[in-house]
Amino acid sequence: MSGRSWDTYGDWDQIASSGDARDIMEKITGHPVERWQSNQMTEEAVSKISNIVIEDRMKYGHKLAAVDFGCGFGRNSELVKRFYPILYGVDIPEMIQQFTELNPVGALKNYNALYTDFEKLASSREFHCLYDSVVFQHIKDNDFVTKSAQTMHETASMGCVISLVCGPLGKTALITNLENLGWRIYHTSVDHASFYGYEHNLFILRRGDSAT
User: Fold this and answer.
1) With a threshold of 0.90, does the pTM exceed it?
2) CATH class for domain 3-206?
């Protein structure tokens, strides 16, 4: 993905290439690095995701895996691993390089594997959920978003997408693409638990044939 793929919030190729960990971390959250912390979830959202996990464990009978899309420096790995003990991270090459060079212990601790190509990840690993924390809304390459949604849909084991969207934007192109493929919004709510209380919208999507 080239820099032209991003909206005006920032050119992530250049941001990640800077080598300035503090600047990268502050750009990820939009706040001083001293306030760096994981996203959180409301009790209602935890309950909804827990129900999905219970259903998927019954179906697959083994530890579940998730993808942290736009994993950055692993800020949300602990949150996602509460539900999915196997976690794969994917981000642009510049970000993965910075993460592994600046925090190699954290990279190994937080993720079972890191990827720079979502298509490659999907073809080589089984996973059941994708977590998107205000990432897809900043991607303006419609072909990339459409292709990513199609890959999610074609990944037979994957039945859940958790997407956090900043502000009043509402549905992103990813959500619309998944709905067009037959996915449905299982839960949506206004979220003040993440990003230091600033308003976001939380969407949890399920395949159309899912029980929950």
Assistant:
1) yes
2) alpha beta
